[in-house]
């Protein structure tokens, strides 16, 4: 074990010094008397990341500048373009979508009053991925023709939940196209935002599976936009399972709500602790703007198993928005999905066994994860299928006025990928669904009949596999 740890540390040190070497050896200087011309170019790794190349460009005066780059095969017909650095003399251009162990060519384009000037062509070579990132994902399919074009035109967001934490964007071939690593914490939960950023809950290895005490938001260049730690502002609670933004760009998360209660009447202590769940909205400084708790709407004493469940009474495991902006929250322990008014905190309806919306008999799900409104406007969730030992997916048409529901989609996954905890399911198009079977270390693409079109084994037990479309990744990444 010690020898293995030494090997990992030694490999990471080599990775670090290799990045330093790249910065040293690929420095290019170009002097010129023209005040707007390029005076200096330096090339290296951005944030010591092998799949992000940083080009620092110094110009004689403020201009707009960007890089065009391509695989160096003697032709530049498939150029990729960096984001534009505007009206400055010191430009930091970050090139993403880098393929390991590949030779690239590039030139710098400067723009003054609409007139473009293209520099001469330079080159750099990318390195292979470090050992700890190799062979993380193994993708298979019976026939590539069965894989929808929409799935090929996007990437999967996957997170490693223990330290050192890694967030990955992976293509359908299992190739890592982007990653971000943190040393001492794991990415417990991660979400791709409407602002094309990655918002995450960070936690230590000794914190439970999807629980953490820090919030991190980074952009696709890997730069930190927000980093909040428990103890800052009103951020006093442990958070878990979900991290989102609302329409006001505020942070929305689930938190552990601890309540001291007299449980002596049911065989507990006079000052016993019941752990419930709540929804908390904060600004980016950690100021609490809104809070809701299950204790506001439900009496723990009505749970006959309270002494057994008090340490994790309800176990909320996902949070999202209905079409009207109110919250959808799912609970593992009671197997229900609730709709909660985002202003008053009132429970509008409960879906599941003992809920307020009637279900067809065929909708016999047991525990649910990743509840959300899909692209067809239906309530969709991953069915853990604990009682029948077979996981699946449901998409339900709800009539909220009549309090009724019908099944729009029901996928029964093969029993070999039964996933009793965690998991997710998201539509890729109207005929296929991407499912994450976390406990099985596998992500699968299924058709509407439950036939697997594609599978990917993962070296990490990711909490979810979130599909991100190519349009949401531009201009940084191209699947």
Automatic annotation (TrEMBL):
Gene3D superfamilies assigned: YVTN repeat-like/Quinoprotein amine dehydrogenase
Q: Which domain of life is it from?
A: Bacteria
**Could you tell me which InterPro entries the record lists for this protein?**
Arylsulfate_ST, Arylsulfotransferase_bact, Quinoprotein_ADH-like_sf, WD40/YVTN_repeat-like_dom_sf
Q: Which Pfam families match?
A: Arylsulfotrans
List the PANTHER family: ASST-DOMAIN-CONTAINING PROTEIN, PQQ ENZYME REPEAT PROTEIN-RELATED
The entry's protein name is Outer membrane protein assembly factor BamB
* UniProt source species: Mucilaginibacter lappiensis
């Amino acid at each position: 074990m010690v020898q293995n740890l030494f090997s990992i540390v030694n490999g990471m040190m080599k990775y670090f010094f290799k990045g330093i070497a790249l910065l040293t050896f690929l420095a290019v200087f170009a002097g010129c008397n023209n005040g707007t011309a390029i005076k200096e170019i330096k090339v290296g790794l951005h944030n010591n990341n092998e799949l992000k190349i940083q080009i620092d460009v110094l110009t004689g005066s403020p201009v707009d500048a960007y890089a065009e780059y391509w695989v160096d095969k003697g032709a530049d017909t498939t150029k990729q373009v960096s984001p534009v650095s505007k009206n400055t003399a010191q430009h930091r251009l970050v090139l993403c979508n880098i393929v390991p162990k590949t030779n690239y060519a590039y030139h710098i384009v400067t723009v003054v009053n609409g007139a473009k000037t293209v520099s001469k062509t330079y080159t750099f070579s990318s390195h292979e991925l470090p050992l700890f990132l190799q062979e993380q994902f193994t993708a298979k399919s019976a026939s590539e023709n069965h894989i929808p074009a929409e799935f090929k035109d996007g990437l999967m967001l996957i997170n490693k939940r223990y330290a050192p934490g890694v967030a990955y964007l992976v293509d359908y071939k299992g190739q890592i196209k982007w990653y971000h690593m943190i040393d001492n914490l794991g990415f417990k939960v991660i979400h791709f935002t409407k602002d094309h950023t990655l918002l995450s809950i960070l936690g230590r290895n000794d914190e439970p599976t999807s629980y953490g005490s820090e919030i991190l938001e980074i952009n696709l260049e890997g730069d930190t936009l927000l980093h909040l730690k428990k103890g800052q502002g009103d951020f006093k609670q442990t958070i878990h399972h979900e991290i989102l933004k609302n329409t006001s760009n505020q942070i929305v998360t689930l938190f552990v709500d601890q309540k001291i209660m007299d449980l002596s009447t049911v065989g507990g202590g006079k000052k016993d602790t019941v752990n419930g769940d709540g929804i908390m909205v904060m600004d980016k400084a950690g100021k609490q703007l809104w809070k809701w708790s299950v204790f506001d709407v439900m009496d723990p004493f009505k749970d006959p198993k309270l002494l057994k469940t008090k340490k994790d009474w309800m176990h909320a495991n996902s949070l999202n928005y209905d079409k009207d902006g109110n919250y959808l929250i799912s609970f593992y322990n009671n197997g229900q999905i609730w709709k909660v008014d985002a202003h008053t905190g009132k429970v509008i309806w409960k879906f599941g066994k003992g809920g307020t919306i009637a279900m067809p008999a065929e909708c016999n799900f047991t525990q649910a994860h990743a509840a959300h409104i899909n692209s067809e406007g239906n309530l969709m969730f991953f069915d853990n299928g604990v009682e029948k030992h077979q996981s699946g997916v449901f998409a339900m048409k709800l009539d909220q006025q009549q309090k009724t529901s019908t099944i729009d989609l029901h996928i029964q996954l093969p029993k070999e990928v039964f996933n009793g905890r965690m998991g997710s399911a998201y539509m890729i198009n109207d005929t296929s669904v991407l499912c994450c079977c976390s406990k099985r270390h596998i992500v699968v693409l299924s058709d509407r009949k439950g036939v697997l079109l594609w599978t990917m084994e993962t070296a990490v037990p990711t909490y979810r596999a979130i599909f991100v479309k190519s349009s949401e990744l531009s201009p940084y990444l191209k699947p």
